[in-house]
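Troubleshooting log. The previous structure file for this entry was overwritten by mistake, so regenerating from the original sequence record. Sequence copied from the archived sheet and checked twice against the printout by T.R.
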Amino acid sequence: MSEPQAEAPQTQSGAVPDNDKVPAYSWYALGVLVVVYVLNFIDRQILSILANDIKLDLGVEDDYLGFLYGTAFAVFYALFGIPLGRLADSWKRIRLMSLGLALWSAMTALSGFARNAATLTVARIGVGVGEATASPAAYSLISDWFPARLRATALAIYSSGLYIGGGVSLLIGGLVVENWNAAYPDGGPLGLAGWQAAFLAVGIPGLLLALWVLTLREPVRGAIDGLPTPEDPHPFRGFVNELLQVIPPFTVIGAALRGLPALAINLAGAAFFAVAAVLLSRAVPATSSLVPGISDQWLFLGVGYYAVFSWAISLKSRDLPTFRLTWGSPAFLTIVLGYGTVAFIAYSASYWGAPYAERALGADKSDLGWFLGAPSAVAGFLGVILGGRLADYLLERFQTGRIWVVLFGLLASVPPLVVAYNTPSLPLFYVASFLAQLTSASALGAAAATSQALVLPRMRGLATATFFLSTTLVGLGIGPFMAGYVSATNGDDLSFGIMSTLVVVPIGFVLLIAALKLVPAAASSVVERARAAGEPIP
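Regenerated output below.
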C-alpha cells in the first residue's frame, strides 16, 4: 500500500562527477521534502482513527466511510496526478509543491468544520487534488539535487515519510480526540468535536510548512547530469493538453480536437460508464448520493474509469509505442493489475484496522497510536526495503524473480489478516496486523520495478502514472468501500467486511501466474516491440 519509486536515470557525459560530495543543502532540502511527505500521509490516513467518531456524529454508515477514505480521494488523486506530473516537468517545482501543500492542508482544515457528509466529501476531493502535486515534484527535485549513485537512497529516505506519516496519524489523532473530548465533553470552541479539532490540528501546520517549502532553491533541471534544460517558455501548455485528455468534461474537447471518430468513441465510452454507474447503484446501493439515483461510490468510479479510458485512447493516437508497451501489453497489465489486488487488501486493512480494534476489541484511541500506528510504520518500512532487496537478489538468478516476490506479498499477507480480524485478543491483533503490513509491503518495489522494466526509458513517467492508476482506482478506490459496504449491510460486522476483500486473492493469483509466463518474453523484446510500433530506434 504505497507509491512506487522512480528509477534513477544514469549519469550522462558532461555531468557533475558522480563521486563528488553532495552539498549539505541537498540533504537539508531532502529533509524538508520528507517532512512534507510525512504530513501528506498524516492528512491522508488520519481518517482511520477518526472514523468511528465521524460515523457517530454525522450518522453515516461504514460504506460512506470507506468511500470517503478511498474513492473520493483516489479518483481525483490519480487523475490529477497526470496533468500535474506534466506540469512538474515544465514549471517551477518548488512553487507547484508549495501550492499543492497549501491546498491539501486547507482542505484538511476545512474538514474540521464539516457538519455533513457532503462537506467532508468536497474536502476529501481537495485533499486528493493537492496531494497529487507532491511526488511528481519531489521525484524530479531529488533527481536534480543528488547524483545517480545516491538517488535510490534519497528516494528511499523520501518514501519513508509514507510510513512515518501513516503511523503518526493514529497517534496524533488519538491524542487530540481524547484530550479534546475530555476537556470539552459538550463541544469546544465553535461547537467543534474532537474529530473536527484533529483535522484542524494537522491541517493548519501545513499552511505554515508551505511557506517554508517556498524558501527552497529551485535547482537547474538536469544540470547534475550534464544536461541543463532551459525553462519551458510555455510551461502550462502541456498541462492544459493533459487536462483535455484525462479530466472530464474537458476530455470531450480533447477528443473533438482529434476528429469526429475520436469524439464518437469518447462519447460511447462516457455512455457505457454512465450506464454501468446506474446499474451498480441499483445492484450495490450505497448510503451517500450527490446525484439522485446514483450512489457516490459508483458515480465517482464511473467518472474515474471514463477518464482513464479517454486518456488511454488519446495516448494511442498521440504515442502509439507507449500505448503498445503499456495498455497494449498483456505482460504490463498483468503485473500492474496483479499488484492492484495486493493494494486492494492492504488499503482496506490499513484504513479499517483502527476502527475495528476500537469497536470490536475495545482499544483506546491513544493506545492505537502506540501499538498499531507505530508498529505499522516500522513494518511497512521494513517490508518495502527487504522486499525490494529480495526482488533484486532473485532477479539476478532467474527472470521471474521479482514476480515471485509480488506473489509472496499477495499470499503471505492472508494468514495474518485472517488471524487479526478473527481473534478476540487485542495483543494478537497488533502482532498479526504488523505481520500483514510487513508482508504486503514487500510486493511494492518488485511490482514497480517490473513495470519499469517493460517500457523504454522515455516512457517510465507514463508507466508510473499507469501504476498509480491501478493502485488507486482498483486498490484504494474499491477495497475500503467494499469492506465498509459489506460491514454496513451485515450489522456493522467489520471483521466480515475485511474478510470479504480476500475475494480478490484468486484474481490476483491468476494474474501473477500469467505474469510469470508473459513478463520474461516482454522484457526481452521491449526495443523490438517499440520499433514495430513506430519508435525511431536505430
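The CA atoms of residues 105 and 203 lie 5 Å apart. Archived copy saved in two places this time.
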